[in-house]
Design goal:
Layout (H helix, E strand, L loop, with lengths): L1 E5 L11 H6 L11 H7 L4 H8 L4 E5 H13 L5 E5 L6 H7 L5 E4 L2 H10 L5 E3 L6 H4 L5 E4 L2 H9 L4 E6 L11 E2 L8 H7 L7 E7 L3 E2 L3 H11 L6 E3 L17 H11 L5 E4 L3 H4 L3 E13 L2 E6 L8 H5 L5 E4 L6 E10 L8 E11 L3 E4 L21 E7 L1
Parallel strand pairs: 2-19, 3-4, 3-12, 4-5, 5-6, 6-7, 7-9, 9-11, 11-12, 14-16
Antiparallel strand pairs: 1-19, 2-13, 8-10, 13-14, 13-18, 15-18, 16-17
Helix pairs in contact: 4-5, 10-11
Length: 398
């Protein structure tokens, strides 16, 4: 039996409590290129998700689904350390589900560090991110990812003890990526060489950290890993970057092939660590809202939805159509089997969830956006126009 746990009506905050929440801000005729079957292929029961939202914009998280997915990923990676990149989604309920399956958490700021350390005292943390402040360099961490010789010198000047991975930005070709992490991230070979003489018995070099790109399949990541694992015999963090395909919600990264490949490439005694984020939590989240109006402007059909990209910025950031299902809960004006652009309530033409997608809907219908569990609420511009925040709901096993 599935139960529903309600979160705060604002964003779930750093500890998951009500005060932090306020601070942080069945077989229906589901329609959209496959209807109800398409919705279930996305991983959610449309009616159950709509009931959970209770008639207002809401994030609905499938915690049993996340638990099963994380367990499968963990099983596919024998001998590999698995950390979760908290930046993808720091929701405390999701972190609690992930914690038994991961060896640690990757955090990229003092705020993320405090958030995770409060939830899981003693859990290993890897602290990364460019532009660390002096205060952040003093935070306790199992591994500290150093971005430059200057940052290493500042770390040494604190007098603290630390175990360091140098973040390296190697000159390796990366093709087919959704996003390449070039530019200011990490160090080139010259800066790595400048760092090596600086280490001492307090600040110890343990290995190297890489994160070259996002949106790569298992074969592409293994091709990079073959080169990267040859750089350090002791410890290598390969980062994340596992592909998540918003055009095909049923597709999944091939964790079994990736795990088998890493087992083949890993040297005896070598520590190999990865830090997925989006590929762990994207599929457990849904943004559920309603159609408030339908209209045509110079022949183009639009559906205006409650909420907007100030709640779910993912499609704008990634430049895709967010996959969705429509539940026929409305009785208002209708659009029938035609290209429709789904937009929100913001006063900007960029407030678009999906463009010119052939569908049928009417005012009052429920729209369920899938794949909203990563880089969604937490990257959105919550305060623009001062609309109310979404609710947060959690599906659990009773």
């Amino acid at each position: 039996m599935t139960a529903l746990r309600r979160g705060g009506d604002a964003d779930v905050g750093r500890t998951g409590g009500d005060a932090d929440a306020r601070r942080m801000g069945g077989d229906a005729d589901a329609r959209r290129m496959g209807g109800d079957a398409d919705a279930r292929r996305m991983g959610g029961d449309p009616e159950r998700l709509a009931v959970a939202a209770a008639g207002r914009p809401a994030y609905v998280y499938d915690l049993p689904g996340l638990d099963a997915h994380a367990a499968a990923v963990r099983q596919a990676l024998p001998g590999v350390e698995l950390y979760y990149a908290v930046k993808a989604n720091p929701d405390p309920e999701l972190l609690r589900v992930l914690e038994p399956h991961v060896d640690g958490f990757e955090v990229s700021s003092g705020g993320e560090h405090a958030h995770v350390a409060a939830l899981f005292p003693g859990k290993p943390l890897a602290l990364g991110g460019p532009g660390k402040t002096d205060a952040e360099l003093l935070l306790p961490a199992y591994r500290l990812h150093v971005e430059s010789p200057g940052e290493l010198r500042r770390l040494l000047s604190t007098g603290r003890r630390a175990d360091v991975l140098l973040r390296v930005n190697p000159d390796l070709p990366v093709s087919g990526a959704a996003l390449t992490m070039s530019g200011p991230f990490g160090m080139d070979d010259d800066d790595v060489r400048a760092c090596l003489p600086l280490f001492d018995d307090r600040v110890r070099l343990r290995g190297r950290h890489y994160h070259l790109a996002s949106g790569l399949d298992a074969d592409q990541l293994l091709g990079l890993a073959e080169s990267l694992l040859a750089t350090d015999p002791h410890e290598v963090n390969l980062g994340g970057g596992m592909a998540v395909d918003y055009r095909d919600p049923g597709a999944r990264f091939d964790w079994a092939a990736y795990g088998a490949g890493l087992a083949r490439l890993r040297r005896t005694g070598q520590v190999v660590r990865i830090e997925p984020g989006r590929a762990l939590t994207a599929y457990c989240g849904y943004y559920v809202t309603q159609v408030v109006d339908v209209k045509r402007v110079r022949g183009a059909a639009y559906a205006i939805l409650l909420g907007g990209t100030h709640h779910l910025r993912t499609p704008v950031t990634k430049g895709h159509d967010q996959p969705f299902t429509v539940l026929p809960t409305g009785t208002g004006q209708a659009l029938h089997d035609e290209p429709v652009t789904l937009v929100g309530q913001l006063c900007t033409p960029k407030d678009v969830f999906a463009r010119n997608v052939t569908t049928s809907l009417r005012a009052g219908d429920t729209v369920i956006f899938a794949m909203a569990g990563a880089y969604a609420w937490n990257i959105s511009h919550h305060d623009f126009l001062m609309h109310p925040p979404p609710a947060f709901r959690y599906l659990t096993n009773a």
